[in-house]
């Protein structure tokens, strides 16, 4: 009997790292591999949910909007995780794990999110892990210095992020480190650390050198 596409779980890589660490550039680099599906973050959906820009509202009034924003992020991420895939490799920008272990933790630590709301979202995450197989074979951690990503973020000039401070990026960096380096939370697959502080040209060279390691036997 012919195997259904959904039964063959693709070799799946999560691309993780701070805001501005170069996750989109990383994905672009891998577009030359035709056997890989590239799944960018659904940022446009977060910026336009029936005409409403949730990302903008989040930064304008985090206390009021974080819960709605993060629930929607979670929904769009789970769709990406469980979506059908016809190619043998899947490269995904971020994952449901960084949503929980980095952003949710950060908002709770900073007291943006009330503990009751934090527990509601935690329960949703736990429910998802219990009921869906989240395939992950490798995590690529684009490791950066917060000062560098802050500069990049300012240069990129995404209007919604104009209020993001260096301190916010430092805290978010620490949450990535706690998860992926210090093992504070579940790490679902081996982690490949890439120094993503370099300029664009040098970093593309580094990605090229890491291609084989990242794609494994699918290279
Ligand atoms: P990132 O997911 O870090 O994407 P990016 O476009 O900055 O990545 P890169 O420059 O490395 O290509 O963040 C996008 C925005 O969404 C950012 O403002 C942070 C916000 N965000 C949250 O607030 N909570 C979340 O759970 C996620 C995933 C993003």
pLDDT < 50 stretches? 1-6
Q: Which structural class best describes the helix and strand composition?
A: alpha/beta
Q: Could you give me the name of the CATH homologous superfamily?
A: P-loop containing nucleotide triphosphate hydrolases
For the record, the count of structural domains works out to: 1
Give a verbal description of the structure.
The chain is α/β, with parallel strands linked by helices. It has helices at residues 23-29, 43-47, 54-60, 62-82, 96-109, 115-131, 146-156, 166-180, 200-215; strands spanning 11-17, 36-39, 89-93, 138-143, 191-195. The protein has a single domain (5-218), classed as Rossmann fold (3-Layer(aba) Sandwich). It contains nine helices and five strands. It has a five-stranded parallel β-sheet. Helix 5 runs antiparallel to helix 6 (115-131) and helix 7 (146-156) crosses helix 8. 30% of the residues are buried. The structure holds thymidine-5'-triphosphate. The site of thymidine-5'-triphosphate has 16 residues, from helix 1, helix 4 and helix 5.
């Amino acid at each position: 009997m012919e195997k259904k596409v959904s039964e063959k779980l693709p070799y799946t890589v999560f691309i993780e790292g701070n805001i501005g660490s170069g996750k989109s550039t990383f994905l672009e680099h891998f577009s030359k591999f035709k056997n890989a599906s590239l799944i960018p973050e659904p940022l446009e959906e977060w910026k336009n949910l029936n005409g409403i820009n949730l990302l903008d509202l989040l930064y304008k009034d985090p206390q009021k909007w974080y819960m709605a924003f993060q629930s929607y992020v979670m929904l769009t991420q789970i769709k990406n995780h469980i979506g059908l895939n016809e190619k043998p490799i899947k490269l995904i920008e971020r994952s449901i794990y960084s949503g929980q272990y980095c952003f949710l933790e950060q908002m709770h630590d900073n007291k943006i999110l009330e503990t009751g709301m934090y527990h509601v979202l935690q329960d949703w995450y736990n429910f998802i892990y219990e009921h869906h197989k989240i395939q992950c074979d490798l995590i690529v951690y684009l490791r950066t210095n917060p000062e560098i990503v802050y500069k990049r973020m300012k240069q990129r000039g995404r209007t919604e992020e104009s209020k993001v401070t260096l301190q916010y990026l430092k805290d978010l960096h620490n949450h990535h480190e706690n998860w992926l380096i210090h093992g504070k939370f579940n790490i679902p697959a081996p982690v490949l650390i890439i120094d993503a502080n370099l300029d664009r040209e040098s970093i593309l060279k580094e990605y090229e050198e890491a291609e084989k390691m990242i794609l494994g036997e699918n290279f």
